[in-house]
Amino acid sequence: MISKKKIATMGLAALMLTLPLAACGSNNETTNNKPANNAANSGGTNTDTATNTNNANTGGETTDAGTKLTGDFEIQYFVGGYGDAWWKKVIADFQAANPDLKIKAMGGAKINEQNKPRWIAGNPPDFVYIDGPELNDRQLVEDGQLEDLTGWLETATNVDGDKILDILAQAPQQYDGKVYNIPLVLNSWGIFWDKALFAEKGWTEPTDYQSFLDVSAKIKDAGITPFIHTGKYPYYINGAFLFPAIVSANNNDYTVLQDMAANKVEAYESPAVMTALNKIVELRDKGFIDKGSVQINHTDSQMLFLQHKDAFIANGLWLPNEMSKDVPEGFEFGFIPSLAQDNGGKVVANTSTATVAIAKNAKNKEAAKAFLQFIFSKAQASQWAELSGAPSNIKGDISASNAPSHVKDAAKFLTDANTVVIPTITYNADVDKAMQDASAALAAGTIEPADWVKRVTDAVKKAAQ
Amino acid sequence: MNSGTAKLQRTIFIASFIVPTLLFFGVFTIYPTLQALYYSFFDWSGMSQHKEFIGLDNFVNLFKDPIIWRAIGNDYFLVLGKIIGIMILATFFAVALTRFNFKLASFFRSTFFIPNIISVVVIGVLWNFIYNPQIGFLNSFLSLFTKEQVTITWLGFQHHTIWMLLPPAIWAGIGFYMLLLIAAIQNIPESYYEAASLEGSSQWHQFWTITLPLIWEQMKVSILNIMMTTLNGSFVIVWIMTEGGPDNTTQVMGSYLYQMAFRQYHFGFASAIGVLILVLSLVTTVILQRLMRQETVELG
Fold it and tell me: How many domains, in total, are found in chain B?
């Protein structure tokens, strides 16, 4: 009896001890199933992770003059608003063209966080698409995580033999004269309205700052709030109104923004910045800015705009796509990249982009470069526009492609000779936050332009230390 | 069988319960805490391979940062507001549902508990709709009594916006503490109240002299628990509703930590905030326990 009881007790004890350990063991096993990943990579649990194995396509053409790519090649891509249809397609195409290469694609909405331990440990994927949260190109450059592409890009040609730098619609951002990442997407911030509503009410669609003010006064009299922005995320009003306004006030010279991004205090103190800030103040003091803006997020502001509670919204060209399910019947998007220019002045398009880069610690840089040559081609450009719903950063006529019509319109706008296109600029994250907080406060009436400049230059001085 | 093996058996048996727990506690609590303490001495972006040791600089910068002081203030405002709000309402409901026999008691008990089974994220989104200036419930309700449409931006005040986060936080917390107190009240023998009634004591008097002293132990636990969960977890509701905005007016330590670590890439600095949260939680727990030290009344 006693011994049976004893055995039972010991058995229970042993079970208690081993159960949690067994759970650990099985976890380890799943992680270890992923080849070539270090244990810190939690990619094993990500359902979006797609592993493209060699699909033995013999019909593929080799990318470059006879060089055969071999070994492992890892691609990290964030899946967000642009989806992953294009990535899956282009990776399959690249695989077909390079049957001996073992491509491993790591994609997903959480991939930036999942792969972070690998970047920290110096074992990053070879190729990275920089988009989404927790991945910032300027920070990656400052952390020394990206390969310097300056020299290579000077002569690099794509698979069709075109020089890559020549076919880019917007040039890559330079960090101290060096290039580390290349913009893949060409999207634009701007101001939207409903053409149908304007036609119905007899309002004139604005083309410059003065006509914007004039029609806003009429809209306000009609009982509709003229302008809404996404105050919870003030980068919307910065991207769609403030930054283009600064460029307009600077004689269409966007280098002022690049100087701002390079943490030059005097750029923030330039008269152009003050002129632009005063335009926000003018809109605010005339009561054109929806007072609710300060607390609402993008979805709410977009809904209010679609419901005609507000006539204009500061947003970006992805808006029609993003809200496609909620657009009321008869709603017709009117769009202009900027509304702060003088009468007859050029339209200023502040681009919004996502870039691609090669990791400094990449193990297969050759394949990564070949992949860059592969994706920056006209064929992939129209495929991108078609599958992601956004214009690609490659010049070229996509009017014949299957891309959605608003994408074609946008592409036309952005390649127009009369549009000043601001190339992609990433600000220091601290300065960017200071600008956002200050702009929200300025639009809400808490502070004045001089306070804006003071706050932001303080942040710049601190960040430059 | 000799006492030696019995002792060994006993030890093994106890160890089989303690060791796994200790292991998990070590791996998931002690190790990350030490890790955070370690990172707080470095200038590190959170993504770089290189960390620069800077000693206590992160802490020095932390105390020079005006936003952290506002965050601490907001955190303690929420602690105080939630303790007062939740304890008063939870006690009131608990007494109402146990001491006054009315038919719908169990229905109300379930109803008041509902916010506890809803995710805080959902609560945040829900209250965002209540506070929405144009299509929100609160403004629509107030508009019933005014000629003009009310368009107050409840989450967009220049100061004190943190007040607006108190109602959802209290609303979400009541149910759990109410149940805790109901259990405590139900443990009080009915004869105490009968005796008091016979002596002609009023309900109010019975509450002060019987109920309150006998549930004080549970109230103490509740207050400590509200304080700790607020200092460590107010992040969620803040992040869902305002992300610390507008203009950092609703920043709490947790949201500022997240902002610094993952939006502004100062992981070392964020770790220093984490250490600060830990220290403040510990200190506040000790102080509160001292303040509430009162002889526990036990059932005779």
Answer: 1
